[in-house]
Amino acid sequence: MKNKNIPNIKSTGFKLPNDYFESFDEKIFSKLNIENKLDSIRKPGFKVPDNYFESLDNKILNNTLNTNEPKVVQLFSKRNLIYISSIAAAILLLFNLSVFENKPSFDNLDIETVQNYIEDENISSYEIAALFIDEHIEEDNFIEHNFNEDNIEEYLLDNADIEVLMIE
Predict the structure, then answer these.
(1) Which of 32, 40, 115, 154 has its CA at 20 to 30 Å from residue 146's CA atom?
(2) Distances, alpha carbon 43 to alpha carbons 46, 55, 132, in Å
(3) Model confidence over 8-31: pLDDT tens digits?
């Protein structure tokens, strides 16, 4: 929606009294009455003691010459040495603990622990096969084992669900 009357407006809507800017300065100065206010001030607001500036140099020199020795803080104080040595001992103890020397190895694991982990975590045979490298899988590893049909049948009857095998 466009307003078509906007370009046709010729007055701004603001009005000033006649001769406003010509008499503006005179009106402000008459209200301030600068001369009367400055004439009414008789004395300044600050007072300096007698002979202050003559004795100032002597006071400053006396204070700077009579200063005591500044306090010196030693870098290697007993307190700092105790802090540094305790931190160094804590770091040394941390690196010498036997906690870091115990590395996990597969020699300690029982076969039952690994089997229970695989069964409990529902790891599929595809996930296990993905971990093998082609170098580990050789035909000789499977040929060497002589599986009897009786042993295979007994194993399947004892350990496998026939319903699952039928579905697969």
Answers:
(1) 115
(2) 9, 24, 102
(3) 767 777 788 888 888 888 888 777
Phi, psi values for residue 73, rounded to 5°: -100, 120
Residue 98 CA to residue 87 CA, distance in Å, equals: 19
Helices (H), 15-160: 24-32, 34-39, 52-65, 78-96, 111-120, 125-131, 139-143, 149-159
At 74, list the tokens: 């030693």
Sorted by sequence, the CB contacts under 8 Å of residue 156 that are 6+ apart come out as 165
165 contact partners, CB below 8 Å, separation of at least 6: 156
Measured torsion, CA atoms of residues 42, 48, 49, 50, in degrees rounded to the nearest 10? -70
Contacts of 128 (CB under 8 A, 6+ apart): 118
User: Is the pLDDT score of 89 beyond 80?
Assistant: yes
Band (45; pLDDT cuts 50, 70, 90):
confident
pTM, to two decimals: 0.23
pLDDT above 70: residue 108: yes
- Cα→Cα distances 101→33, 90, 96, 105, Å: 93, 18, 9, 12
DSSP-derived secondary structure letter, 75: S
| Residue 137 CA, distance from chain mean position | 49
Q: Which are the contacts of 102, defined by CB distance < 8 A and separation ≥ 6? A: none
